[in-house]
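Whether sequence alone determines local backbone shape is best considered at the level of individual chains. We regard such an encoding as a compact summary of how the chain folds. The sequence in question and its structure tokens are set out directly beneath this paragraph.
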Amino acid sequence: MFATLLGPLPRPPLDRDASVDALVGAAVRAQEEAGLEPITDGGLRGQDELVAAWRATAGHTLRAVKQVITGPYTFGRSERIHASQRSRLTLARAASLNAVLRELAAAGCPLIEVHEPEAITIGADPAARALFREAHLRLLDGVEGSHMALALTGGNADAAGIDTILAAPYASLAVDLIAGPDNWRLVAVTPGDRGIVCGALPAEAGTADGPELLLWAAGYAASTGGRGSRRVGLATASSLAHLPWADAVGKLERLGEAARLADLPVGERVQALDPRAVSSRSAALGRVPPPPSRGPDRGQDPT
């Protein structure tokens, strides 16, 4: 079971004049120490010169590094243009990004993650569905040698339908299951030969972040379509950039802990969990004591 980020990190607490590369190095070390892989640049390099950006980030670690890009559909909706021009701009962006993806694959980037938060706006609109499908088919055309992942965050995208979401040959689908719980419907109908990344660690401050929910999410995703645990990963639900650095690092640690627990034999895993999550009936009858408070982050008591 692997664990990774779905979204950026806050700025590491380095000097004001610290270089971008130094900031990325701190973000990489935090992910390594938490046990995450694939690693990201924490969203600290932006979206310019993506091939050079990936190479620079990869130079900070021996672990696999993924490159995150903003997808063409979201790009088209972010531009302040008349709706009649949106289709042309979206498809043009898909074509230009296709060249970048080919370069990344040729450079050895093992995983490219395309983020489409605006997919939650598609719904049942046939024109929007058609545009999303066509844009992603153009985006992935001829791209070989890298694992291609599609990430949906910020809400429910299930109304668009799996035929829209996975029209292009993505190898895995990453979904925000906190802001978009109905995304489970997409998980349930995603073919079993595709990977699922469960964005099930809340991005808000003050949440308990115990491993129980994460392990349940991973187990359920593994059970769908005969997928198995080897095609399932865990992730933050979305961006952590709004959090203080220490809180964000605490969430990384919780995420890495859950991934490690997922790989343990069942007996050892059960011992590490809240007993009420293992035997809800016994908990309801008062037969098991509640565990010590884990606190919202880094073991702090919320009271």
Observations:
- The chain has one domain: 2-284.
- The first helix runs from residue 20 to 34.
- Confidence is low (pLDDT under 50) at residues 279-288, 293-303.
